[in-house]
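>> received
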Amino acid sequence: MKRLLLILSTVFSVAVAMSACSGMLDSDDKDEVEAGKNYQTFNDADNTILGIYGKFMNLAESIVVLNELRADLMEITPNATLDMAAIHSHTATADNKYCNLAPFYEVILNCNDALDNFDKMKKANKLSAADYSYRYADVATVRCWVYLQMSIHFGSVPYVTNPLTTIEDLKDEQNFPVLSFDEMITTLILCMESLPTTELSTTSPLFGETIDGYNLALMFLNKKVVLGDLYLWADRHVDAARAYLGVIEEAENKLSTGGENRAYKVDGSVWDETIEPEFQVCYKRYKASDMSTFRNKWKEIFYRPSTNAQLWREMITMISYSSRFEPQYPFVEMFAPNGLGKYQLRPTTWVIDSLWEVQVQRDNGFVFDGRGRNSSFYYYNGQPVVAKYLYDYYAMSVNQNSTLNLEFDYIPNIYAMEGKWFIYRAGLLHLRYAEAANRSGYFDVAHALLNNGIQPNYSWGRSGGDVTGVQYTGLKPDTTTALSVPYPAPFFLDARQTPRNTPYPVFNSPWRTNYGIRQRAWVNNATVGVLPSRADSIIAMEKLLLREAALECGFEGHRWSDMLRIAMRKNREDGSGTAYLNELLQKAKPGMRYITPDTWFLPRKYAE
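>> returned
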């Protein structure tokens, strides 16, 4: 089995594509024969899933280019292709490489074929109900995610679930229902809600399987995250919050060990001689004003391999690329300034100078953000370089405080085009949960998650120092003897922790380690100040969350999606969505051609 899996990315993904995209208009009898040949056991089903993800890996370049280059954090260099330049300037025509929907539909058609045959296997008792449940849900989630991405960039797209459809068929869109953006979101929500399970597939044979040094568990899209995203696009904010919180609560049961409850908590700790902080920016205890003790572990999110146990506290979905297998990792060529890199895209001056470089650090007042300079980006020969995708290409040096740094002049193997595609992680999950909480009316929950965490923001003491009834999200009590009123699910986050050597009940609640996005990065809280109404505060908080998503998740393939989602929301509220997009884009691309409502979305074509 392992021998077979090792060659899947080069052989089986091609076989799956062939079965899905050729001969699909033959008779039903032949279809049954082919299904009987390729789908006999649950191992065959697992091989199909891996083949689908082999095709899914081909989408990385388009997802990052479309979501970042259309937005305001990334720009072209003189080495960029004409297709990249047109995407950047919002002037792309249908013949643009990135307007080709064939790679997206190649994944979808493979999914359609697999789902149809999984149904047949279940009916023929070749898959038990349990074996069918996870496998069907995993594949349907991939299909929904791909449809969501296409809708974000192309607006209206054909919705195809027929397993007999080919890429050639799609060229005549009159044969298929072409769904508008809102229609697609509604359809995808119904699909996700009808899945046989949305649980984490920890019992699947693929979960935890390590192939050629890569842990497959991080490869799979999380069903609850995808459903939460769909709810967020539909402005079903309470449902979105419930789905996102469900990801964290599920991780508490399935990914946490020893009662730590640190999975996806954006946790942190004080760095001293005994405690080793993970994925945070910090200084040694009591020495925050001494720059020589600066330590940046946050950047290791993008360096550690899929087999690293601590990475599971942060990374939800990440795909690793090996130079030994297809498809080739696209981001070395795109971002690296030497070696086999072509340095085609780089950070905008705006994101560097106006966002990362103006953040003020806690305690010492130093002005910079550890997530920016020498972390998300570096300077090489005076030019800014997107670095998140290059931690596997260049050699690394380590300073006296265990902070890693890229060494651009030393490439261990110039031909090893290897790296990772970061799809979902805890930082993004918290920001989207905060967006949902904010829009649901829980502005203070969003504030706590954005800044310094749950515990300090709800630490309302009672008489005698008893912590019972405090340190969880809720309404502040009227007196020191009254209990606070907890928020309802999904906005109740329990961070209670009993101090040592006290007579009070012992609490080691799940959210006690939550640090908050900005405290983990060791930058001051971001606040909206005093505004006339709660509605004004919600709008102001939404702007802060969008800004923080740039600081925390810049270049990871989410920026245009975040901007567009808020623009659509503004259009529904007061029709200001297009003006909002142009306001953001003009900061990074002065003089750029203005976007109009009919240019929010790209033209589309289908070319194999």
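>> The two ends are 32 Å apart (CA to CA).
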